[in-house]
Structures are given as structure tokens and as C-alpha cells.
Amino acid sequence: MNWVNKQKLPAIEAIKYNDQPCLSIEDLWQALHLTFNTALHHRVDISILDEIVDKSSSSWAPVRSIV
User: Fold this and answer.
1) pTM
2) Measured between alpha carbons, how far is 23 from 30 in angstroms, rounded to an integer?
3) What pLDDT score was predicted for residue 1?
4) What's the rounded Cα separation, in Å, for the pair 62 and 67?
């Protein structure tokens, strides 16, 4: 049973906010909260959405319930 042996974990990088790693859940929520508040009243340029090409819709086969 090879899957129960000790395994090497993949290398990961911590989420950083203000060049400080968020090592606790409180740090992470604080970073998310401050990031949201920073962007809250900024205007967004939605003209980039005009570059999206329309695609035709696909038809789906009807779904039948088995009862």
C-alpha cells in the first residue's frame, strides 16, 4: 500500500499582502477585506468586454427524469 506512506508535499507559495505572507486565516481575511475596500469605489472600464466574440448557442438534448 504505497499510498499510505509518507509523501513529499508539492512546493507552494503563500499568499502575500503588502509583502507579508498570510499564514493564518485571520491574516488572509484581513488581506481580502482590505483589498475589497481598496477597489470598492474605483470605476471599471467595461469596454474590454466589447472584444469578446459572440458565439452561437448550442442546443441541448432534453433531460428526462427516471422515476
Assistant:
1) 0.43
2) 11
3) 61
4) 16
Nearest Cα to 12, choosing from 22, 26, 2? Answer: 22
Query: How many Cα atoms are found within 13 Å in the side-chain-facing hemisphere of 35?
Result: 10
Q: Cell for 36?
A: 475589497
- How far is Cα 38 from Cα 33, in angstroms, rounded to an integer? 9
Contact 35, 29 (CB under 8 A): no
Parallel/antiparallel/unpaired status of strands 20-21 and 16-17: antiparallel
Length of the chain: 67
For residue range 27-53, list pLDDT tens digits in order: 999 999 988 888 888 888 899 889 988
* Residue 64 in grid coordinates: 428526462
Look at 10-14, 15-19, 47-51, 53-57 and tell me which has the smallest mean pLDDT: 10-14
User: What's the one-letter identity of residue 5?
Assistant: N
